[in-house]
């Protein structure tokens, strides 16, 4: 079909090359462009032109604009849509791009390419008549036109049937209704195919159908499919006309993006409670929490955004980008659920937020800490007084779209109670095989959650229910080194806090050595949350000074005051704070008080019977002192410091091994006898007595501490250790090495004794930390003791032989 003498598009059109979304004549589509030729088209043509003609461009679908303008053009899709650019919006963030709103006019085919740079210009042939969009509905194809007439009649009837099933109060439905009445029938395949749920591939088929008959044939099955889908949905709702009359009908959008009639079920009785429940249910069911928010992902932009938002965390960022790249290439959303595991304040939540921004999706955080009732996840049945929907459906209502990023915060803190196991309800939510029909008890309507991107966070995996853990891919987020914290503070925390307190860098400056001081002496944490709080405290103190500086001084004579007050006022007036206020050590002490942590390691290792161990807790790595003393007695062992069973067993193991080897190492009891326990009681204490401790990794520390006690020798003051022991004196590997090493580094330790089989974990330690430390890897307790004591702990037989 070629155009006659009617309305003509220009014979030469600049071409916009698109690979996502298909523009059909009569529809309006938003395109985001950032590739070179497309960008040039917008800046050289659309933004420069002043005539209506200059806003008409050709949109070629299914064709990717090359990344560089020096690259050759790929072969173009044969048929495109001429369109009018009705809106152009430009942005430089996260990288330069334009968003175009284009309304399709008619099909064209490319006859020849005139130029490829700076943008593509082509000689085109118009394929559709443009008059059809302006001529009255009665004209065009009619029933008399043979097979075509029949097809158009069928199509028109099907379109009317579809509209009958939809909610007229929804703008897009009302628009479709108006178009159906006013447009000639030959335009209907394009218009309907662009409005109902169709894939890009299907839209391309409609676009490529140049003959009108073929176009009707392609679009009719899509329309029929939509109608059948809606019918099925209505059937499952078990519609009863009686109920409808009694309770009225309510429409809401289903997950396919269309609106369907939904009849309130029989739960509503005519009593007050019933109506109030009904009312809140209806209010809940009304919002379009199934409308889709489209996004297109640019991996390079995603990388820039993640790098801008977060310093360090390279491994995590790399894995997140891989994950996003796979999702971009494979649009099916069935993928692993990422679970970020690490100590508090290391940025797990904020990476989740960045992922949502990267994807251009809504973000919603669901705090699961302490949730112990499964109706928290699934909602209450409406028969209960005060029933509510669960957090998942509530979250969807809050964000208003059905494809947000949901951050399930603290999955390791889920509880269990008589009201059921919330973890079991979460299993259904997170399982891609099941979550397309998640039913909240309150709504009692299956909802498709498969478009939601779930990310979980936890402090430790040990308390995550195994079935839940099995559905997630765990990404460890370790703590930061001192240097990383300084960078994070200066790049992110200080600017953020300044902004939150209405301050500028011209008013407050925190030099790097002050930040180092805050990190070392006022905080002891794996993440940066306390550091952020301390910086906040400094900002508040400075805000007071700055505000005082701005105060308009009142005349001293206006109010009689005590001489002291008057004195201070005249001081304020005479010395407004000098800007910028620089926080040095003295200012830091004034604001934050005396240091909370001191370098205490060497001071505490001044007596025999003390050793320094390394522990891992969900809050990160920690140093841990072990103290031992002995007194006359019956050979009893006392253990204090809230120890778990495994740790108590380690203590017994350590004593047994030392007793068995006492002769070899010349260890003696209180009166110098060969059995260290004879006539001697031993007390082992693990300070920080209020904190429960457990795990086998303190084994080597207990042995070293007791060896020091029995030999009367001091453990080196700069050494810390970790490792599990066996009764035969072997040292077994333990977990959490990175966090433990970072904690030791923070505490100023110089030598770390580790199990040999943990050597591979040292690769994860940042190079600057590794350079500061001397690692001794050990296979047995003999090697541990030799490394822990100055000059070694070699047994006397060997020494005497030498
Ligand atoms: N690498 C980083 N770069 C920039 N800011 C960071 C980084 N890591 C953490 N932060 C900041 O530290 C603060 C705490 O982070 P966040 O709340 O994400 O921690 P979290 O790991 O989720 O902690 P929790 O387990 O307690 O929820 C936030 O303000 C965050 O922006």
UniProtKB/TrEMBL annotation:
Species for this entry: Mastacembelus armatus
Which superkingdom, per the lineage? Eukaryota
- UniProt similarity note: Belongs to the peptidase S16 family.
Q: Name one GO biological process term.
A: proteolysis
- Return the EC number: 3.4.21.-
| Ranges for domain Lon proteolytic | 605-791
The top of its lineage is: Eukaryota, Metazoa, Chordata, Craniata, Vertebrata
> What is the enzyme's main class?
hydrolase
Where is the chain membrane-spanning?
A: none
The record's listing under InterPro entries reads: AAA+_ATPase, ATPase_AAA_core, Lon_bac/euk-typ, Lon_lid, Lon_proteolytic, Lon_Prtase, Lon_prtase_N, Lon_prtase_N_sf
Residues at which ATP binds: 342-349
Q: What is this protein called?
A: Lon protease homolog
């Amino acid at each position: 079909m070629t155009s006659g003498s009617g309305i003509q598009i220009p014979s030469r059109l600049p071409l916009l090359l698109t690979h996502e979304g298909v523009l059909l004549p009569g529809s309006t589509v938003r395109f985001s462009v950032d590739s070179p030729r497309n960008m040039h088209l917008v800046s050289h043509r659309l933004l420069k032109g002043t005539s209506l003609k200059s806003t008409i461009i050709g949109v070629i679908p299914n064709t990717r604009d090359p990344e560089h303008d020096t690259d050759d053009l790929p072969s173009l899709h044969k048929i495109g849509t001429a369109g009018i650019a009705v809106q152009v919006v430009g942005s430089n963030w996260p990288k330069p791009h334009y968003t175009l709103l284009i309304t399709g006019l008619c099909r064209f085919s490319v006859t020849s390419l005139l130029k490829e740079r700076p943008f593509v210009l082509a000689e085109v042939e118009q394929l559709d008549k443009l008059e059809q969009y302006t001529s009255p509905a009665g004209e065009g194809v009619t029933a008399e036109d043979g097979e075509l007439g029949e097809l158009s009649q069928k199509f028109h009837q099907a379109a009317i049937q579809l509209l009958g099933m939809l909610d007229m109060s929804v703008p897009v439905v009302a628009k479709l209704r108006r178009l159906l009445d006013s447009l000639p029938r030959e335009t209907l395949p394009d218009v309907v195919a662009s409005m109902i749920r169709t894939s890009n591939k299907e839209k391309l088929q409609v676009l490529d159908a140049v003959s009108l008959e073929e176009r009707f044939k392609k679009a009719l099955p899509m329309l029929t499919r939509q109608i059948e889908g809606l019918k099925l949905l209505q059937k499952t709702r078990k519609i009863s006309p009686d109920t409808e009359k009694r309770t009225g009908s309510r429409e809401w959008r289903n997950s396919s993006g269309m609106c369907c009639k939904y009849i309130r079920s029989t739960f509503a009785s005519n009593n007050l409670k019933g109506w109030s429940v009904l009312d809140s249910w209806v209010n809940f069911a009304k919002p379009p929490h199934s409308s889709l928010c489209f996004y297109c992902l640019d991996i390079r932009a995603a990388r820039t955004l993640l790098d801008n938002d977060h310093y360090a965390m390279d491994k995590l960022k790399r894995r997140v980008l891989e994950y996003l790249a796979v999702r971009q290439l494979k649009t099916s959303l069935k993928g692993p659920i990422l679970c970020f595991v690490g100590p508090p304040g290391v940025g797990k939540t904020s990476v989740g937020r960045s992922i949502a921004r990267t994807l251009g999706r809504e973000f919603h955080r669901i705090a699961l800490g302490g949730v112990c009732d499964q109706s928290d996840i699934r909602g209450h049945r409406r028969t209960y007084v005060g029933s509510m929907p669960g957090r998942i459906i509530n979250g969807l209502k809050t964000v208003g779209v059905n494809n947000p990023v949901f951050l399930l915060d603290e999955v390791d803190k889920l509880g269990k109670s008589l009201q059921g196991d919330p973890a079991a309800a979460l299993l259904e939510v997170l399982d891609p095989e099941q979550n397309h029909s998640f039913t909240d008890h309150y709504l009692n309507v299956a909802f498709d959650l498969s478009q939601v991107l779930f990310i979980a966070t936890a402090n430790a995996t040990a308390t995550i229910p195994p079935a839940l853990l099995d559905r997630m891919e765990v990404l460890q987020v370790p703590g930061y080194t001192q240097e990383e914290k300084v960078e994070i503070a200066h790049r992110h925390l200080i600017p953020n806090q300044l902004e939150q307190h209405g301050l500028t860098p011209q008013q407050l400056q925190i030099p790097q050595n002050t930040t180092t001081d805050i990190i070392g002496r006022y905080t002891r944490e794996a993440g940066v949350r306390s550091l952020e709080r301390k910086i906040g405290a400094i900002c508040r103190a400075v805000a007071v000074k700055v505000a005082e500086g701005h105060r308009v001084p009142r005349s001293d004579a206006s109010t009689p005051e005590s001489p002291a007050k008057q004195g201070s006022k005249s001081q304020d007036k005479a010395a407004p704070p000098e800007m910028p206020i620089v926080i040095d050590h003295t200012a830091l002490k004034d604001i934050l008080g005396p240091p909370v942590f001191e370098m205490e390691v060497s001071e505490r290792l001044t007596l025999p019977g003390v050793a320094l161990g390394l522990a891992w807790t969900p809050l990160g790595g920690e140093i841990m002192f072990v103290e031992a003393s002995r007194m006359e007695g019956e050979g009893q062992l006392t253990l204090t410091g809230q120890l778990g069973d495994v740790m108590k067993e380690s203590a017994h193991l350590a004593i047994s091994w030392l007793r068995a080897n006492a002769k070899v190492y010349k260890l003696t009891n209180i009166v110098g006898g060969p059995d260290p326990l004879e006539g001697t009681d031993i007390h082992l204490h693990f300070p920080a007595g209020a904190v429960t401790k457990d795990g086998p990794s303190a084994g080597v520390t207990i042995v070293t501490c007791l060896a020091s006690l029995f030999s009367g020798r001091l453990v080196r003051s700069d050494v810390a250790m970790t490792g599990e022991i066996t009764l035969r004196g072997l040292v077994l590997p333990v977990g959490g090495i990175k966090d433990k090493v970072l904690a030791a580094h923070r505490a100023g330790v110089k030598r770390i004794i580790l199990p040999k089989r943990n050597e591979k974990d040292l690769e994860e330690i940042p190079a600057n930390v590794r350079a500061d430390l001397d690692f001794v890897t050990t296979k047995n307790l003999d090697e541990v003791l030799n490394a822990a004591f100055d000059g070694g702990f070699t047994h006397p037989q060997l020494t005497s032989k030498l």
